[in-house]
Amino acid sequence: FKADYGLVSMAAGIIYGFLLAVPVIARTSLFFAGEEVASVDFRQMICVCGYSLAPAIPVSLLCLIPLESLRWLAVLAGLAISLLFVRHHLVSDISVNTAWLKWTLVVSPCIMPVAVFFLYRVHFFTSRS
C-alpha cells in the first residue's frame, strides 16, 4: 500500500467545486429568465447539496472491500439515497413560474451527486492489478 495524498486535494476540489457550481448555475438561470432571486433560497440549496453527499462516507468505506459487485451496489444505493434526499428537500421549495427554469433548478443539484459518486467510484476505487 502506498498513500497518494494528491487524491485528497482532488477529492476536496471536486466537492467544493460542485458546491460552488450549483448556486452559480441557479443564479445565472434566474438572471436569464428574469425571475426574482428571492424565489430560491440559495443557503438551503447549498445545504441540501452538501447533506446529499453524506451517503458518500459509508459508500467510500464499503468501497474498500475488494469486490467489484459490492462496490457498484454500494455506489448505486448511496446515489439513490442522495437523489431521493435532494428531491424530497428541494423540489417543494422552488417557487418559479417558468417551467424550464424549475427543471434547471431541480436537475442541476441532482447532477452533482451523480458526478461525485461515479467519479469517486471510477477514479478512487478502481481495482488495480
Question: Which residues form runs of ≥5 with pLDDT under 50?
Answer: none
Number of helical regions: 5
**In the residues, how many domains can be counted?**
1
Shape: elongated
Q: Main beta sheet: strand number and arrangement? A: none
Cα-to-Cα separation, first versus last residue: 12 Å
Overall average pLDDT: 84
What is the percentage of strand-forming residues? under 5%
User: Which range best describes the helical content: under 10%, 10-25%, 25-40%, 40-55%, 55-70% or over 70%?
Assistant: over 70%
Q: What's the count of strands?
A: 0
Order of helices and strands: HHHHH
Task: State Rg.
Answer: 17 Å
Class from secondary-structure proportions: mainly alpha
Walkthrough of the structure:
- The chain has 129 residues and is mainly α.
- The protein has one domain (5-95).
- Helices cover 73% and strands 0% of the residues.
- It has five helices and no strands.
- The protein has helices at residues 6-33, 42-51, 56-62, 68-90, 99-124.
- It starts with 5 loop residues before the first helix and ends in a 5-residue tail after the last helix.
- InterPro entries: Yip5/YIPF1/YIPF2 (IPR039765).
- This is Protein YIPF.
- One of its GO terms (cellular component) is Golgi apparatus.
- Keywords: Membrane, Transmembrane, Transmembrane helix.
